[in-house]
Amino acid sequence: MNESVVVGELTWPEYAQKVASGSTIFLPVGALEQHGHHMCMEVDVLLPTALCKAVAREVDGLVLPALAYGYKSQQKSGGGNHFPGTTSLDGATLTHTIQDIIRELARHGARKLVLMNGHYENSMFIVEGIDLALRELRYGGITDFKVVVLSYWDFVNAPAVIEELYPEGFLGWDIEHGGVFETSLMLALHPEKVDLSRAVDHPPAKFPPYDVFPIIPERTPACGTLSSPKGANREKGELILRVCVEGISSAVREAFDLQK
Amino acid sequence: MNESVVVGELTWPEYAQKVASGSTIFLPVGALEQHGHHMCMEVDVLLPTALCKAVAREVDGLVLPALAYGYKSQQKSGGGNHFPGTTSLDGATLTHTIQDIIRELARHGARKLVLMNGHYENSMFIVEGIDLALRELRYGGITDFKVVVLSYWDFVNAPAVIEELYPEGFLGWDIEHGGVFETSLMLALHPEKVDLSRAVDHPPAKFPPYDVFPIIPERTPACGTLSSPKGANREKGELILRVCVEGISSAVREAFDLQK
Amino acid sequence: MNESVVVGELTWPEYAQKVASGSTIFLPVGALEQHGHHMCMEVDVLLPTALCKAVAREVDGLVLPALAYGYKSQQKSGGGNHFPGTTSLDGATLTHTIQDIIRELARHGARKLVLMNGHYENSMFIVEGIDLALRELRYGGITDFKVVVLSYWDFVNAPAVIEELYPEGFLGWDIEHGGVFETSLMLALHPEKVDLSRAVDHPPAKFPPYDVFPIIPERTPACGTLSSPKGANREKGELILRVCVEGISSAVREAFDLQK
Amino acid sequence: MNESVVVGELTWPEYAQKVASGSTIFLPVGALEQHGHHMCMEVDVLLPTALCKAVAREVDGLVLPALAYGYKSQQKSGGGNHFPGTTSLDGATLTHTIQDIIRELARHGARKLVLMNGHYENSMFIVEGIDLALRELRYGGITDFKVVVLSYWDFVNAPAVIEELYPEGFLGWDIEHGGVFETSLMLALHPEKVDLSRAVDHPPAKFPPYDVFPIIPERTPACGTLSSPKGANREKGELILRVCVEGISSAVREAFDLQK
Amino acid sequence: MNESVVVGELTWPEYAQKVASGSTIFLPVGALEQHGHHMCMEVDVLLPTALCKAVAREVDGLVLPALAYGYKSQQKSGGGNHFPGTTSLDGATLTHTIQDIIRELARHGARKLVLMNGHYENSMFIVEGIDLALRELRYGGITDFKVVVLSYWDFVNAPAVIEELYPEGFLGWDIEHGGVFETSLMLALHPEKVDLSRAVDHPPAKFPPYDVFPIIPERTPACGTLSSPKGANREKGELILRVCVEGISSAVREAFDLQK
Amino acid sequence: MNESVVVGELTWPEYAQKVASGSTIFLPVGALEQHGHHMCMEVDVLLPTALCKAVAREVDGLVLPALAYGYKSQQKSGGGNHFPGTTSLDGATLTHTIQDIIRELARHGARKLVLMNGHYENSMFIVEGIDLALRELRYGGITDFKVVVLSYWDFVNAPAVIEELYPEGFLGWDIEHGGVFETSLMLALHPEKVDLSRAVDHPPAKFPPYDVFPIIPERTPACGTLSSPKGANREKGELILRVCVEGISSAVREAFDLQK
User: Which domain of life is it from (chains A, B, C, D, E, F) (predicted)?
Assistant: First the structure.
């Protein structure tokens, strides 16, 4: 028996058997987005994928191929969609991708899905995709398909952990784009895809309480990160991993009422 | 000369003259959504409309008819879309409404637009509408149309103000749905549409760091608000109004480089 | 108990109770459109809204927030979509707005809806929205949702009334845009939003029996109205009101088999 | 040289030459719709196609393949969309078909298009298709594409003609569905597709001044026509043809400033 | 009783009776596309329409009006979409047309549909239209609607027939655009719409194993055909007809388990 | 300097520099689809991705993240979309994904794109995405964006190679789903994801020259492959790889007029 939790690595009978046994399916939803001078552009795919795999191992789940393109980067949370490399979808494209996948999973017989978001801007278009899909499933007579949607960073909320990650004070998830949090995770998971020596140290980005379109590129630090990654290290990444895997596993068990 | 800032109350020659003189246009984007037992369901329209009018008077602007229906209420920010009365649009409908209106304003010759959001869940679909519209305007050769988008509560951020509004501690905008903030504003602006005697006092809503669909209605306080409005009063509402009108007027002047 | 027929002014429990008791819901569908030099641009919203409220009071109904933007003004019925101020939606946007609202009303438990159109050009896009919505409701197992759609002017058809309104002869609803009919109604309902002294007197617009796109603006009278409002007065408006409220109330009772 | 005015019967070099010389293109827009017991279901395609050909011969134009499916039949103008045989498109499908064809014609170099409608319900979705297409052409830098849109019956308006067609009084185009007008035209053009012996004589359909959805089939005469075709004859059809060909030819020459 | 197999030539009661008796419905799906210097542009409509009629007569079926516009001509199968005259739809427009027609047929009570494709490029958009329609029918509780889709040339596969048509060797269906196959069929069915004297003799088109967009027009033979029609004749056309009618009739009987 | 050809592994300045220097971008377009009992379900992603990387190294190109979900599996080319595990998108979703990515690449300054298809059913929806994107780019004034689209198997066409791969005769690409071709490639590239011992030997699938919907699952071999993979081996895979990399590299150089 194939022990992989990766759907793409299974044969269809292996997958069919897992789904028939009630396995939870995980879908990482990422983006192709600039993450500064020191990190590759697939960060938002790699991180939720790694977490999906780790949690899937805990709860006997399966991980679908990640969505590698996400919604348009916004200035205050991702630097903005004007950088070369950042390659984004229209909202409707992302929404319908989610809807199509849920429709197919339901056809397979799956009833438990976790959408693990790795790119802040995706959130509402994921929600809309879920809503359209569940509505459609109801028309088809399926009312027991259940979706958990989460952004993994929301599980890092214990004051002690925040304190350990940000001994000089936490400035908010918004400006964590390419900063200590994501960089530390990458150092723990894919150190070869980070080059801290090229990290640009800069004060946290500051934005007015409104947005302007077309955006004013100068408001984003030139390197693309919104806060400096200088405080990042592997240990912090491993701490975040532990906290996320534990928290998300527990949440998934709770949400789907799983034994394991 | 008609002194109204309300576009709907002007004749077209009056509007045309204002637009030709460079007036900023304001569009309140609201929702029809339950706001507990003590408040009417048009709160998310009334509040941004009132603020648009007040700011328009400051900056010689004009206020378009509000969008009275918004995106689906989410459990953690609006209680959820399962309440009777809450009447929401699909994301694409809201997005295309925004896109259509911007296309028309550009045809009129307007080049400055403020989208004032009064319903948290609208944010990303407004952003998408702006992006699609500005993209389309570029195809039509128009590159100088500028949009400011804001949620008015983001202008209430001075610690002294927060302290005055929430002497017992601020718990975050998320759970302010139908709570002290919105209720105080309504008391200042439309006291006849609030009946504090029917307000339900309850502890702040607590949610896990993930969402489940279909939602679990029991996670929302039965009355529909996410925090108790009991601390609301007219004075707080007037303070918020002052802070918002001043802050937003100043932001609009800055963003559009206005003299007045 | 809140006596308002305006949905936006109710709390959700008040609304829920009304809907549970079988109340008919009214949705005014308007437009933001030029109406000449003597009238404001929100005429097509104000008139059906006023009629909805009046009829709702007769039949114990409820009035939803009006749709303030409608389909593109056509030259022969609204002067054309080239005027500044006229702010219109694509057909699909209007259609999906109608569809979304019907889907939500059905979720609330409502089963009786009156769509009161105030802007000629909306008609077919409303019809399509209804058709798409009822089709979708059928997929969801709901087959008893019933919609009445009407344009209020179609209830003014008794020869004696026409004779009283147009002693010099009636020229057809088409060119009534901004003319005697709408202006009289506005004088009866919102006299402060009409300035007859600025009304431009002109012969009725004449059009060839075909349409040209792009339109030829010169074919529309420069002021924007299609017939002169000079014969308008408050008394005619009150007559129209009486006729419409009576006729529509009676039609609604008949269509939904209401006691009251 | 091929003398046909039918685009489908030309080779592409023949078509290309015609278009290069400035020929006007005609597109008949029809429907597949019941027309009572005495007539075939392709009436709304055959009639505008015949008129397009006749007019094209007059003005050196070309006729595209007709659109054989139209928008949903409405009860008051076509009996309703519940009859077997009536086969209709969603509004968006018709609109996009029109838009696509205009985009292609513009690519060919054509700049003059006549959309000849043969099915009342199509009108607004044709208008929307034109609007979307011309908007898009503008983005592509094409601003001289001109469209005439017409319903051929609108050219039958001279009182003497109406009197000759309806000696007992004209009841309006609305209920002419399958009645004297269309039947007479069919008798003049395609007599083998009419069987007057099967025509059902009935009083003109009467409808209340509102529509109900789902429609109440009983409100339509059981045979499907809205007025009796008994008064139809070939002579009336020939008169209509003469009037329409003459009137439309003249309108097309006027609209496009044609010599011929 | 009307003996026509053409739906458009029937009255609705005739159609209703046929459908009630279980008749198979045929829909020819064509295109308006250049077919070289020697043939008209409606070839892809005429051929599947003729075959539909012939097969319908064999199996007591009915033929709907053909779809006269198809998906964009591709260089390797139709010469490319850059020729004047070729008038194509976006994929979604074709797909939704198919979907709408199937939805309507199901409403009529029909349950057997044959989609006869006459234009290679349509294939996948037809498939998608079927899939969307059947999905939607399932939501409406209809699970017994069955569709056969075919391209008629796929029935010409017996080596002896291929040998007779192409004594010098068969080069593949791809480059048969406007070549021996289609021209022979046209000579058998519509000889007046072919002028072999204008046929351009040229070596078969050769293309690299990839496509380039925007296409390089020079890669298509200047006349528009992809292989020479010089070997075409009426006898070959009649052979193809016999083979196709026999093969398709038999397939339809098999697929729908028909007696006749 | 990062030597990776994988866009996701680059920082944005590295990517920006490559694009500025004129690098060709490659996008693998795959599917999540059953491939029998002996192979994993990500075959259609792994193969074009490997080929993109190999060719990109030859021509100094860059490889975007693959599209991991494709159009619905068809019975005659992929077994059908009814297998558990096969997870497919609606056509419009795939088309818009392609369109969005091209729009973004154009914004980055890229002008050369290769779409490498690994799943037969994707082809036409890719083509439509390209057409919509290039049309839109033209509206934005960009006319020099060039796309090559190919299915890698089309480069395996030399008779000697076919003879070596299929000594007992080649039966057509159609039924190569999960057969010798794909299995050999997987053995050369990802042998750990193939288990030949589980391969089911069966005669080649045979289908009638038409398709039926809903499909008849029994027509597909129960294991899901359309021809037996028994003749597959690593050497054949390496031969295919050599042939494809050489052929595609050469095609890309030719198409984009590259030096290298």
Answer: Bacteria
Is residue B174 part of the annotated active site? The answer reads no
User: At a CB cut-off of 8 Å and minimum separation 6, what does A249 contact?
Assistant: A55, A58, A59
Would you kindly state where each structural domain of chain A is located, as residue ranges? 5-254
Strand A25-29 to strand A62-63: parallel, antiparallel, or no bridges (unpaired)?
parallel
A139 in reach of chain C (CB within 8 A): yes
Choose among D258, E42, A93: nearest CA to F96: A93
- How far are the Cα atoms of C180, E35, E119, E198 from residue E190, in angstroms, in the given order? 60, 14, 18, 16
Of C213, E88, B132, give the one whose Cα is nearest residue D131. C213
Put simply, the answer to whether E138 touches A136 (Cβ < 8 Å) is no
CA B49 to chain F, closest CA, distance in angstroms equals: 35
DSSP track, B122-156: GHHHHHHHHHHHHHHHHHTT----EEEEEEGGGG-
Q: What is the ipTM of this complex?
A: 0.97
CATH of F5-254, one of 3.40.50.300, 3.40.140.10, 3.40.50.10320, 3.40.50.10310: 3.40.50.10310
Nearest residue in F to D139, CA atom: F139
Which entry of B33, B42, B58, B176 is annotated as an active-site residue? B33
Among C33, C42, C58, C176, which one carries the catalytic annotation? C33
Scanning B64-93 for CB atoms below 8 A from A yields: 71-72, 74, 90-92
Chain C residues in contact with D247 by the CB 8 A cut-off are 209
pTM surpassing 0.95? yes
Give the integer Cα–Cα distance in Å for B63 and B55.
9
**Annotated catalytic, D202?**
no
The answer, for F206 touching chain D at a CB cutoff of 8 Å, is: no
Do residue D138 and residue B136 have CB atoms under 8 angstroms apart? Answer: no
Burial (0-12, 13-18, 19+ Cβ within 10 Å), A253: middle
**Residue numbers in C near D146 (CB within 8 A):** 212-214
Rounded to whole angstroms, how far apart are CA atoms D204 and D175? 7
Tell me whether residue A44 is one of the annotated catalytic residues. Answer: yes
- How far apart CA E33 and CA D11 sit, in angstroms, is 9
For chain F, 260 residues long, give each residue's pLDDT as a single digit of tens.
Answer: 578 999 999 999 999 999 999 999 999 999 999 999 999 999 999 999 999 999 999 999 999 999 999 999 999 999 999 999 999 999 999 999 999 999 999 999 999 999 999 999 999 999 999 999 999 999 999 999 999 999 999 999 999 999 999 999 998 888 889 999 999 999 999 999 999 999 999 999 999 999 999 999 999 999 999 999 999 999 999 999 999 999 999 999 999 999 86
* B158–chain D nearest CA distance, Å: 46
**Cβ contact D138–B140 (<8 Å):** yes
Residue D41's nearest CA partner among D77, D75, D84 is D84
Phi, psi (rounded to 5 degrees) for B172: 110, 150
Report how far residue F89's alpha carbon sits from residue E58's, in angstroms, rounded to the nearest whole number.
38
Residues in chain D: 260
Looking at the complex, does the CB of residue F190 fall below 8 Å from at least one CB of chain A? Answer: no
